[in-house]
Amino acid sequence: MAQFQLVMHSGPTPGKTFPLEGDVLTIGREASNPIAINDAEVSRKHTQFVFQGGKYIVTDLGSTNGTFVNGTRLTGQQVLQPGDIISLGEQINLLYEAVQVIDPNATIISSSSARVMPAPAAPAPVVRPAAQPVYAGQIPASPQPAYTPVPSAKKGGLPIPAILAGVVLLCAVCACAAFLWYVDSSGAWCNFFPFLFGSSCG
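The structure corresponding to this sequence follows.
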């Protein structure tokens, strides 16, 4: 496959492509040239292309109207670069360009190797409770509110100050009872409570 080609921009066949194949090839009016251009401005053997070092070198073959590269007439050899314009005389212009080579060993991804994404699962159907039948003359019962148990008050023990107060009160009652028993048993009422018995204690 050709690495470079010439595309006619102006001349007898604009848009025509001429692949550059071979180490040495010529352009001319005669049909024996690898690239034959039948035009009055083209000499029978007009221009020569030689492939060296991966590039083409162009040389004018003593043509009548001359060979030009980017508007400059050739007086010797010229190494071509992609994008150069080669003119044969004044009316024929050829674009020198590289041909894109496709690597035959390139990996091709087939459609069968593409990853298949699973379809999204359908949503689960919503199950609604069956409606209770209502007979003629029957009033449908209103829904009962859900019973929420009321938490009972937490039972806790008596606080320590109340227990101490009860103990002190109990001790005081016991002391009073013991004192009264002592007074009564010893007959000392008048000694301790003379204001209660008055003259009887005299």
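The helical segments are 160-186, 189-192, 194-197.
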